[in-house]
Structure formats: structure tokens, C-alpha cells
């Protein structure tokens, strides 16, 4: 098209040039007629060329529209894709559906194989003083020796959609002989209405924080002095029933109340094996998420029971307060964390002469993880004795833990105890080297 326009413009210039210059005579009628004929021919060619281009453009547009309609028909919608995937999965499942007999045997084999784990806790122990010296309690914990402190066998499995069973058997040495016994064994009811949950069996009482920890789950080698002096080496751990309730509240906060009714067989502060009464334990727990990296937990506990063979004539009351702060930054959670835990206990114990002995104790612990496999802790202890508030122990501990893996850790710890009074043991320095090994899928403990 550009060629024809150029030719027309050139012809016009040629016609206009002689007239403008005045050097040639005017064109004849024949010349003008010839030029008009050429111009008409040029217009016809330009019109034909334009029609040709328009036809090509229309054809291309039709092809684009056809391709668009074809692509729309070929690409299914998300709903159609989902429906097709479901139908395909159903077809594959139908070809692989097992027989009823194979289902029966499969479930039978699975139900006969709960999660089983084994945890061994070993110590190397040194205590200042004469080698081989026995303490007034007659226990071996304060001798210079290697100790296989505890072997825990754990069996856990869902019973049905509504409940779960957990059993923990401990094997330990006492006075040179090995004994096996049930540490905990209970059924948990998971689907009760009104945000309720219940346990029935033998279990650690829901009192405070340290009382509920298994030995291998403690951040220290030994239990705090106040827990041992108030509740004994085994802590509060009896047969009974428990009911916990997640309390609804307008603030949408996590508030949990727990009631335990257990046998009154703790000999340290309560009736012991001679009692035929029960022990009541109440625990109120408040949990708050402060930020993405930190949480705060507050707790209040109370336990009461007769401390003789009667039914309440002589009783013991123990109250407890606990606070736990945890910090773990999301981006460095594998390498850094901090836990501060403090607990205080207050005891009022009726004495045989009619008087009442008031005692208290507390501990405060700080644990800091400074590398992926390394952490350190320090703990302060103070404890009187429920039967003699004049006897007391004041102790300080430090230690470092190396987590060889998820299933094995080493811990080195030092503790100095300043003791006073007839019920307290002598002043002493102790060094522990702890090795803890776990095999199998042992369930996680409470946060």
C-alpha cells in the first residue's frame, strides 16, 4: 500500500512542478484523462488491498476465538477436578478394599501391640564425708557409688475412641535388692461432655509442678528438697479417681480445675498404710500465651487428709503456689530457650499432743538452653519439715546437660546442702553424673 501512495504523490508532484515553475505549457485534455484513469486504478488497487487485509484480520480473530473456546472446554473447573479426583480415589480404594477377615485380624494384631518404651536412669554419685557412710534414713542415695536408679517400662495405647490407657512399671534397687512395682496405671476418659476429662487408676496427684514429673523428665538430677521432705521420695502418687474441667470464661483464657480423690497412704505428711480414709487434692491452673516466644503458667494447689488412722480428727493441710515462665524464640527454638519455675508449699499438720506444726518450703529453678544440644540450670532450695519446723535445709544446685540425641542425655550436677535440726541430715556436698537412655515411642509429658 505504501508503494501505491508514493506513486500517486510522485505523479501529483510532476503535474504541479511545471505549472509552478512556468517553464512548460499546460497539460492537454488527453494527458489529464490519462492521469485520472491512473488515479482511479490506484484507488481500486488500494481498496482491494484494504479488503484483503481486513479479511486476513477477521480470519485471525476467528482462529483466536476458536482456540479460546477449545481451551475453555479442555480445562475443567476446580470443582470438576476435585470430583474427578474423588471418583478416582474411590475406584482405587474399591480395588484394594480388604476382606472382613483380614480387617479383623489386622485390628486384633494392632490392639495386642501398644506403644512400648523403656527408659533407664543411671547415676554416678559422690557425697562429702566418710566413704560408705549411711544416712539416718537408711537409704543408699548418699553413698559414693554407681547407681542404676530406675528402669521405667511404659505401655500406652488407645482403648477405643473414647479412652486411652497408660501403664508405667518401675524397677529399682532398695537395700541391695531389686523390686518391680506399678508407678502409674490409669484409664483416661477423653470424650466426656462439658469440657470434662477423667482418670481412674494409680497416678501422680495434680499438685503443683515438680510432684507430677517423672524422674527422667526432671530438668535436675534430684527432686527439690521441699517435695521430698513434705511428700517423700515417691511424692504424692496413689490409687484413686480424677476429674478435670476446662472452665469456660468470658476472657477466653485457659483455666483448668482438677480434683483428685485418692487413697490416704502417703506416710510423710498423711495417714500412711494404716489409714482407711481418702486424700483430696485440688489444683487450679491458668495458662497465658504472652507472645510468640513466651508463655506464663500460674497454679494453686491444696491437699488435705487425716494424718492418723482416724477419719479427720488429726489432719494435715498443704497449700502450694507455682509459677512457670517459658521463653523459646520461634526462629532459634532449636538453639535457645529459657524456663523459670518457682514453687512454694505451706503445711499445717496436727500433732498427737493436740498442737499444730506449721512449716513451709520453696524452690526456684532457672534452666537455659544455649546451644542445640547443651543447657545449664541452677536451683535454690529451702525446706522445713512438717513434723518439726525448727529443722530445715538450705541448698543450692548447678548443673549442665548434654543431649546426645532425643533418646539419650548426660547431666553433671553439683549440690551443697546446709542442714540444721534433728530431722535434717548433715551438711554435705554432692556430685552426680547422670545418664538417661530412652527406647521406643514414649509419650510426651504435660507442657
Mean pLDDT: 84
Shape: elongated
Distinct helical segment count: 5
CATH class category label of the largest domain: Mainly Beta
Order of the strands making up the biggest sheet = 1-2-3-4-5-6-7-8-9-10-11-12-13-14-15-16
The stretches of 5 or more residues where confidence is low (pLDDT under 50) are 1-25, 131-138
Biggest pleated sheet: 16 strands, antiparallel, barrel
In terms of topology, how is this protein built?
Blueprint: H1 2-21, H2 29-74, H3 78-96, H4 100-111, E1 115-127, E2 145-160, E3 163-174, E4 177-189, E5 196-204, H5 225-231, E6 237-246, E7 254-263, E8 278-289, E9 294-306, E10 315-327, E11 337-350, E12 356-369, E13 374-385, E14 388-405, E15 408-420, E16 428-439
Describe the 3D structure.
- A hairpin with a 2-residue loop joins strand 2 and strand 3.
- The protein is elongated.
- Helix 1 packs antiparallel against helix 2.
- The longest helix has 46 residues.
- The chain contains five helices and 16 strands.
- The N terminus is likely disordered.
- The chain is of the alpha+beta class and 447 residues long.
- Helices cover 23% and strands 46% of the residues.
- Strands 1-2-3-4-5-6-7-8-9-10-11-12-13-14-15-16 form a 16-stranded antiparallel barrel.
- It folds into two domains: 73 residues; 323 residues, Porin, CATH 2.40.160.10.
Provide a brief overview of the structure:
By secondary structure, this protein is an alpha+beta fold. It is 23% helix and 46% strand.
Amino acid at each position: 500500500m505504501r508503494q501505491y501512495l508514493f506513486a500517486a504523490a510522485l505523479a501529483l508532484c510532476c503535474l504541479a512542478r511545471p505549472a509552478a515553475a512556468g517553464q512548460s505549457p499546460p497539460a492537454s485534455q488527453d494527458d489529464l484523462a490519462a492521469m485520472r484513469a491512473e488515479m482511479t486504478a490506484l484507488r481500486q488497487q488500494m481498496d482491494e488491498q484494504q479488503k484483503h487485509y481486513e479479511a486476513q484480520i477477521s480470519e485471525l480473530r476467528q482462529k483466536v476465538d476458536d482456540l479460546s473456546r477449545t481451551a475453555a472446554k479442555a480445562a475443567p473447573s476446580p470443582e470438576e477436578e476435585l470430583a474427578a479426583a474423588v471418583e478416582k480415589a474411590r475406584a482405587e480404594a474399591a480395588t484394594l478394599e480388604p476382606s472382613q477377615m483380614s480387617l479383623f485380624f489386622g485390628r486384633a494384631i494392632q490392639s495386642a501391640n501398644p506403644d512400648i518404651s523403656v527408659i533407664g536412669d543411671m547415676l554416678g554419685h559422690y557425697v562429702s564425708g566418710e566413704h560408705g557412710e549411711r544416712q539416718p534414713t537408711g537409704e543408699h542415695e548418699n553413698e559414693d557409688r554407681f547407681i542404676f536408679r530406675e528402669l521405667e517400662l511404659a505401655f500406652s495405647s488407645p482403648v477405643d475412641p473414647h479412652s486411652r490407657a497408660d501403664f508405667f512399671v518401675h524397677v529399682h534397687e532398695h537395700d541391695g535388692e531389686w523390686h518391680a512395682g506399678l508407678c502409674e496405671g490409669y484409664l483416661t476418659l477423653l470424650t466426656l461432655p462439658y469440657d470434662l476429662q477423667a482418670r481412674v487408676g494409680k497416678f501422680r496427684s495434680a499438685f503443683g509442678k515438680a510432684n507430677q514429673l517423672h524422674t527422667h523428665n526432671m530438668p535436675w538430677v534430684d527432686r527439690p528438697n521441699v517435695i521430698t521432705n513434705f511428700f517423700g521420695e515417691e511424692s504424692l502418687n496413689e490409687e484413686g479417681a480424677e476429674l478435670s474441667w476446662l472452665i469456660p470464661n468470658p476472657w477466653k483464657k485457659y483455666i483448668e480445675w482438677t480434683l483428685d480423690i485418692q487413697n490416704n497412704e502417703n506416710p510423710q505428711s498423711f495417714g500412711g498404710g494404716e489409714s482407711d480414709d481418702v486424700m483430696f487434692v485440688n489444683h487450679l491452673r491458668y495458662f497465658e500465651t504472652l507472645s510468640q516466644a513466651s508463655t506464663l503458667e500460674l497454679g494453686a494447689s491444696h491437699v488435705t487428709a487425716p494424718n492418723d488412722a482416724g477419719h479427720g480428727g488429726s489432719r494435715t493441710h498443704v497449700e502450694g503456689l507455682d509459677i512457670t515462665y517459658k521463653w523459646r524464640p520461634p526462629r532459634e527454638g532449636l538453639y535457645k530457650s529459657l524456663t523459670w519455675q518457682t514453687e512454694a508449699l505451706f503445711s499445717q499438720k496436727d500433732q498427737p499432743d493436740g498442737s499444730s506444726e506449721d512449716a513451709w518450703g520453696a524452690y526456684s529453678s532457672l534452666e537455659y538452653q544455649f546451644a542445640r544440644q547443651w543447657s545449664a540450670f541452677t536451683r535454690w532450695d529451702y525446706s522445713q519439715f512438717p513434723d518439726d519446723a525448727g529443722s530445715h535445709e538450705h541448698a543450692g544446685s548447678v548443673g549442665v546437660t548434654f543431649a546426645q540425641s532425643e533418646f539419650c542425655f548426660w547431666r553433671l550436677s553439683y549440690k551443697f546442702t546446709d542442714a540444721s535440726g534433728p530431722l535434717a541430715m548433715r551438711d554435705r556436698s554432692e556430685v552426680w553424673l547422670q545418664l538417661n537412655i530412652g527406647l521406643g515411642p514414649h509419650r510426651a509429658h504435660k507442657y
